[in-house]
Design brief:
- By secondary structure, the protein is an alpha/beta fold.
- The chain has a single domain (6-213), classed as TIM Barrel (Alpha-Beta Barrel), CATH 3.20.20.70.
- The chain has eight helices and seven strands; from the N terminus they run H-E-H-E-H-E-H-E-E-H-E-H-E-H-H.
- It has helices spanning 9-19, 41-50, 64-74, 89-98, 144-158, 175-181, 190-193, 198-213, and strands at residues 24-29, 55-60, 78-82, 102-107, 125-129, 163-167, 185-187.
- It has a seven-stranded parallel β-sheet with strand order 1-2-3-4-5-6-7.
- Helix 4 links the parallel strand 3 and strand 4 (102-107).
- It is globular.
């Protein structure tokens, strides 16, 4: 939603629904953990009122433990927090799970995958950032795909069912390598809402992903 039209979010929500997207990804930025400000819980609550799509809320904030409950109560269906933020990560993940919300763990491009392995049995989703968090429209960091490959191999080796999400710079050119590396949840902002035809943009991304999944 960071790439949507802030002057008329509902219109872009309707376009996303018509295009058949699986969920809405809502980036929350506090101006401290990342050098930008975006949405608060009120926007999450508003989105919850106007759509039946699941809300995938990504907290790019300094102290996610202080606000996790508020965002879940506002309507988050999945809540993702950063390993690098200032909090007891295990406790925050436990709070999210105890409130009946799916929990995700995000790691930045420079964070080693190994730093997250002890937490992976506690999460439903691992988000590998493919840009440095804070702004939309950044170029894709191809080196992160090695981390995605490690995450997929670890899940298979240990029988863990977590999804692997990639976020940042996802286009029709980068979605294929991402899926091939093991990602199965794709966050696309500018490459969807930045296009005149949102339905066609989503279809293109899905087709590219399907080609790779089918071995094409």
């Amino acid at each position: 939603m960071l790439a949507a039209n802030f002057a008329n979010l509902e219109a872009d929500v309707r376009k996303a629904e018509a295009a058949g997207v699986d969920c809405l990804h809502v980036d929350i930025m506090d101006g401290h953990f990342v050098p930008n400000l975006s949405f608060g819980p009120e926007i999450v609550a508003t989105l919850k009122r106007i759509t039946q799509l699941p809300l995938d809320v990504h907290l790019m904030i300094q102290q996610p433990d202080r606000y996790a409950r508020t965002f879940i109560e506002a309507g988050a269906d999945t809540l993702t927090v950063h390993l690098e933020a200032y909090h007891d990560v295990k406790r925050t993940l436990g709070l999210i799970r105890d409130m009946g919300c799916k929990c995700g763990l995000a790691i930045n491009p420079l964070t080693l995958f190994q730093n997250a392995t002890s937490l992976l049995k506690r999460v439903d989703l691992l988000l590998c950032m493919t840009v440095n968090p804070g702004f939309g429209g950044q170029p894709f960091i191809i080196e992160v795909l090695e981390k995605v490959r490690l995450a997929r191999a670890y899940a298979e080796q240990h029988g863990l069912p977590y999804d692997i999400q990639v976020d940042g710079g996802l286009t029709s050119e980068t979605i294929g390598p991402s899926v091939a590396a093991g990602a199965n949840v794709i966050v696309a902002g500018t490459s969807v809402f930045g296009q005149k035809d949102v339905t066609a943009a989503v279809k293109l991304l899905r087709n590219r992903a399907a080609e790779v999944s089918a071995g094409g």
